[in-house]
Write a structure and sequence with these properties.
The chain has about 500 residues and is α+β, with helices and mostly antiparallel strands. Helix content is about 40%, strand content about 25%. It is elongated, with a radius of gyration of 40 Å. The structure holds adenosine-5'-diphosphate (ADP).
Length: about 500
């Protein structure tokens, strides 16, 4: 491409137009000198020069040649090429530092320029129009982005994290090289999503990945732990966390996230669970024997008038029952963690179950006033033993966290096709910030009042897992210092 100055344009008009144009310089095609003929105001400004000092001078006399530039960006090479070929040459980005008279130092600047030949009547290059644009800010912004990306990459690498990006419409998938290591692949080649999906444990894919994905489309968040199998068959655990990016129509467009290998901590957890399971199992047998001996002893003694013996026997029974509950809790916890907690579903009368459980649990706190407000005929299809365990946990907590003199109220009712059971006490109550966390494993409220009350924080966690497995809901309503109501709801059998 080349240009011609319109022949009928008066010289003075051309001069004004040229001088007001953005960064433009006109040099003669008189290689190797390339005499400067005209310069626009902007060109002078950006190069910190004046018309008097550069017009009439050779280009390289006015602007000393930067020998560090490559052939693609070196002005002498480019000007010569334009003269030789008569073709326009663009240089998208190059560095050329300029002298700042205020700071009296060279300033780093980035430019992009076009070099357009202007032909004479003989089709020779008479002039070259050199237009430059200062792109320093754009280059700096691009450098900042690259620097941020590098920092992020270094941080994720330091945390041994892999990053991934999934396009939800076309399922395009990009991940960082660390993903290959986490999934046990030697090469650094981009792994297709299918290869990674096949490595996820089939059960976990069905029960965890698919529901989490569907839920994320609504909630915008993604978090789960699953088992994967390396190509050599070994079992590993990974934890992935991500967010959904929505388009302008608020439709899910992409998912971004991280993956970490949690095999070591999972193995530790499994070892700990195995230990708890083993220890609880070993403790269960002698405890069952002690319980049986106590019963035999009571039977053999018959009705005794000695109040000391009576009270010692009663206390011994209470302690044995407390220990049995604790051990059953630990056993259930380890069954739950290893996915072995099975429900034995059957239809039963909820009110009868509540009455039996109150009777059994009240042995832990003899003489305690428990009022049961019941609704007629409440039949449910559930695991009666596990539901009794939940009620018993609510009751024993009510004993623990309220004064002996205050009453406890148990209710059963029908509500929107659900059977609802609640236990209310007038005890220490729970702050709102703790209420959300009570159903987490090992969570106990930290307070002065709690210091002397023993517990492990597993009862409510088990209760919540049991109710969730019944597709029910569990919750608490409470005000600090004014007691608490723990409740659960189960779908009613029709
Ligand atoms: P534990 O009672 O063995 O600590 P739980 O899982 O049964 O374990 O209860 C978890 C925590 O919830 C308790 O430590 C206590 O802080 C709080 N909590 C449970 N029930 C009540 C209640 N009725 N009143 C006040 N706080 C309660």
């Amino acid at each position: 491409m080349s240009a011609r100055i319109p022949p009928d344009l008066p010289d003075d008009i051309f001069k004004i137009v040229f001088e007001k144009s953005p960064g433009s310089l006109l040099v003669k095609g008189d290689a190797p000198c390339f005499t400067i003929v005209a310069a626009s105001d902007t060109y002078l400004e950006v190069t910190s020069s004046t018309r008097e000092t550069i017009i009439g001078k050779g280009f390289f006399e006015a602007f000393p040649e930067d020998k560090t530039l490559t052939d693609d960006t070196n002005a002498r090479v480019i000007f010569n090429k334009v003269v030789k070929t008569g073709q326009k040459i663009d240089v998208p980005a190059y560095r050329f530092d300029v002298y700042n008279p205020q700071t009296k130092a060279a300033e780093i600047r980035y430019w992009s320029c076009n070099n357009t030949p202007i032909l004479n009547a003989d089709k020779n290059v008479a002039y070259i129009l050199n237009t430059v644009v200062d792109i320093t800010n754009e280059v700096r912004a691009r450098e900042a982005v690259v620097e941020n990306e590098n920092r992020l990459r270094m941080a994720t690498e330091a945390a041994s994290m892999a990053t991934w990006d999934l396009g939800l419409r076309d399922l395009t998938f990009i991940c960082s090289p660390r993903m290959n290591e986490i999934f046990g692949h030697d090469s650094n080649k981009q792994l297709p999503l299918d290869v990674l999906r096949i490595q996820v444990d089939a059960e976990d894919m069905k029960n965890i990945v698919v529901p989490a994905y569907n839920e994320a489309l609504h909630t915008g968040h993604y978090l789960y732990e699953v088992r994967i199998y390396w190509p050599d068959g070994s079992l590993r655990w990974i934890k992935t966390q991500g967010i959904v990016i929505y388009d302008e129509k608020k439709e899910p467009a992409r998912m971004l996230g991280t993956i970490i290998d949690i095999t070591d901590s999972k193995r530790d957890e499994i070892r700990k669970n195995d230990f708890i399971a083993m220890a609880s199992h070993e403790l269960k047998t002698p405890l069952t024997s002690i319980k049986a001996y106590l019963q035999i002893m009571s039977k053999k003694l018959g009705p005794v008038s000695d109040s000391f013996i009576n009270s010692v026997l009663q206390k011994a029974n209470i302690q044995v029952n407390k220990m049995a509950d604790l051990i059953h809790g630990f056993l259930d916890l380890s069954k739950l963690e290893s996915g072995k907690l099975q429900l034995k579903m059957a239809t039963f009368d909820m009110n009868k179950l509540i009455k039996d459980t109150i009777l059994e649990t009240s042995l832990l706190s003899p003489g305690r006033a428990i009022k049961f407000v019941q609704k007629k005929e409440l039949t449910v299809y559930a695991d009666s033993e596990k539901i009794s365990q939940v009620i018993s946990n609510f009751l024993s907590n009510a004993f623990k966290y309220s004064d002996k003199e205050t009453p406890i109220v148990v209710t059963s009712a029908k509500n929107n096709g659900c059977v609802c059971v609640s236990v209310t006490d007038k005890g220490i109550g729970i702050k709102p910030k703790d209420q959300e966390k009570l159903f987490q494993r090992f969570y106990r409220v930290e307070s002065e009042k709690m210091k002397n009350i023993s517990g492990f924080g597993i009862g409510l966690y088990l209760a919540s897992e049991i109710i969730q497995r019944h597709k029910g809901t569990i919750g608490v309503e409470s005000e600090e210092g004014r007691g608490a109501t723990f409740y659960f709801m189960l779908p009613e059998t029709t």
